Amino acid sequence: MDEKDIVYERELLFSTNDPNEIGVVRVRLYSTKRNKKIVAVVESKSEHNPKEYIESILQSMEIEMFKRINVKISENVDVIVRYDNEYFKVILSGEGAASFHFEGLKDF
Questions:
Q1: Lowest-confidence range among 3-7, 69-73, 80-84, 99-103?
Q2: Cβ count near 79 (within 10 Å)
Q3: Which of 31, 53, 73, 77 qualifies as a FRET site for 101, CA 20 to 30 Å off?
Q4: CA distance 82 to 30
Q5: Which of 31, 34, 35, 37 has the alpha carbon at shortest distance from 9?
């Protein structure tokens, strides 16, 4: 995706396994041109692997970004995690982040 397609960008805090450590991610939202869904790219700003904390990150995204505009991540957002220069799509099964897996993307 091209930088000019970014419509919103924000850094979010998320909880980790250690209450004394705070995880930080940058979330970039891209226009819906590609497949009529919002594309959210998540990148770590702390030393935490976002794949390990995706449930916490999705909860923060839902509360801080999407709830106020009545957008459900499970229905309207493609979430892509970028880590170690690789991209992974978060595949949600059912409502919310209760069940998910990652699918590697070769080209994003």
A1: 99-103
A2: 24
A3: 31
A4: 14
A5: 31
Q: Is the pLDDT of residue 73 over 60?
A: yes
CA-based nearest residue to 80, from 42, 29, 36: 42
What b/e readout covers 16-45, taking b as 16+ CB neighbours within 10 angstroms?
Answer: beeeeeebebebbbbeeeeeeebbbbbebe
Q: Is the pTM of this model over 0.70?
A: yes
**Is 25 in contact with 57 (CB distance < 8 Å)?**
yes
For the cut 90, the answer to whether the pLDDT of residue 65 exceeds it is: yes
C-beta separation of 77 from 27 below 8 A: no
Domain coordinates in residue numbering, the chain = 3-105
Q: Which residues contact 66 (CB under 8 A, 6 or more apart)?
A: 72, 73, 77
Give 90-100 pLDDT, tens digit per residue: 988 765 555 56
Residue whose structure tokens are 């991610």: 25
Q: In what order do the strands lie in the sheet with 38-44?
A: 6-15, 22-30, 38-44, 77-83, 86-92, 100-105
